[in-house]
Amino acid sequence: MDKILGTSETVVRNEYSAETDPREILRTAPMSRNQIYGIIITGLLSALDGYDLLATAFVAPALAAQFGVGPGGLGILLSSGLAGTLFGAFLLAPLADSVGRKPIVLISLLILILGMAASAVCDSLTQLAIVRLFTGIGIGAMMVIVNPISAELSNARNRAFVIAIKAIGFPIGGAIAGGLAALLVAPLGWQSIFIIGAVSGIALVPLVIWKLPESISYLYERRPAGALHKINVVLRQFGHKPLKELPAAPSNSSVPYLAIFDARHFVGTLSASLFCLLSWIAIFFFLSWQTKMLVDAGLSMAQAAAISGTSSLSGAAGVLFFAFAARRFNERLLSVASVFGLGIAIIAFGLMPASVWALGATAIVVGGFITGATVALYVVTTGVFEARMLATGSGFVIGIGRIGSAIAPWLAGVLFTLELERASVTAIMGAFAIAAGLIMWFMPRLKSEASAVKL
């Protein structure tokens, strides 16, 4: 591992000048074992996010049977957790700029633990929907904060690799939830899945407290009380000599939201937002309804959960495949192919006969394309926004995408309530992904015309 990541127990220690940026030290120096431990923890947190977010979907057939609800009520339940991620991303996560990233990570983790524990004792669909909404707040905040932490803990040489490894955590967590649902729901009930999730979260608390450092970027840029001392504590943990003083605080380079709607960026912002909205509707429809559709097709609960978990696991393989393929093929064309492939695969899933092998194979293909479609979002935003406004632009676009993710399960529930067949619903939802692919395909042309747009 040390040779792969260029890590070392003994990091070269230099005397630093008064102008030394501590972020630059981490960017250029070999990685220490404590940095690797921190990255592993972010991967485990991402896996817990994936486990919790998909757990409800994997036990949805058991919930529908116990509470006697139809597709409409089930759609509301499945949307509630995703709606909570909106509140977490926009209300809780921004507090990390005021109190630090590590405290918000801990708060988010505690929300997940409490939410999963409370989910296990709910005795009505309404109670469960409220609890899942609450739990989603923790998931949404965690997803926003953990990504930059994992990138910051890596040096420049390994950053892309580290981000890819961290991204694998989410589908692996979903795969674990699916595997456990296949084994435990029948003998122990759906509550067992949430209990295991809560216990797993409790096990992560001491790791976060003792091994996940506070963000040096936050300490350096925000300068809370005792910033120099706190930065030096982190530097020592990573094997570096402490700084004697900090250089002048960097100026606030944030870009206002109005800037992404100026004449130059308007069409690009609109196109990227529509792409994210439409593709996430397709993605989260499938993630939320896949297990229920499999059961409705005649498969057992264990078979459906096992297929759903394997589909999620194929997403982890998709991360590695996309990272490998992107080094040899054009990223934009690869992303377009992934989004088109997602739409076609979802439509094909609806056309498959009620066969374990046919439905299972198609679901695994969909899971792989979901990864490519997710990565495509980052290809889109980097193509539309220059570096100085990338954070603002991508934040807005992802916010629009979260709206799509929240309404997708509810919309599918409405369609199923109208007694549309699986083939019809998947055709509609797959069309969202195909439309997103068309938007991405024509986006370079739209971007070039953006300068001509007059507001």
UniProtKB/TrEMBL annotation:
Is Cell cycle one of the keywords?
A: no
What Gene3D superfamilies is this protein classified in? MFS general substrate transporter like domains
What lineage does the source organism belong to?
Bacteria, Pseudomonadati, Pseudomonadota, Gammaproteobacteria, Pseudomonadales
Q: Give one GO term, molecular function aspect.
A: carboxylic acid transmembrane transporter activity
A Pfam family recorded for this sequence = MFS_1
Keyword Transmembrane annotated: yes
Q: What is this protein called?
A: Major facilitator superfamily (MFS) profile domain-containing protein
The primary location reported for this protein is membrane
Tell me the keywords, alphabetical order. Membrane, Transmembrane, Transmembrane helix
> What topology does it adopt in the membrane?
Multi-pass membrane protein
Return the InterPro entries for the record. MFS (IPR011701), MFS_dom (IPR020846), MFS_trans_sf (IPR036259), Sugar_transporter_CS (IPR005829)
Report TM segments. 36-60, 72-92, 104-121, 127-149, 161-186, 192-213, 266-289, 301-326, 333-351, 357-380, 389-411, 423-443
What GO cellular component is one of the record's annotations? plasma membrane
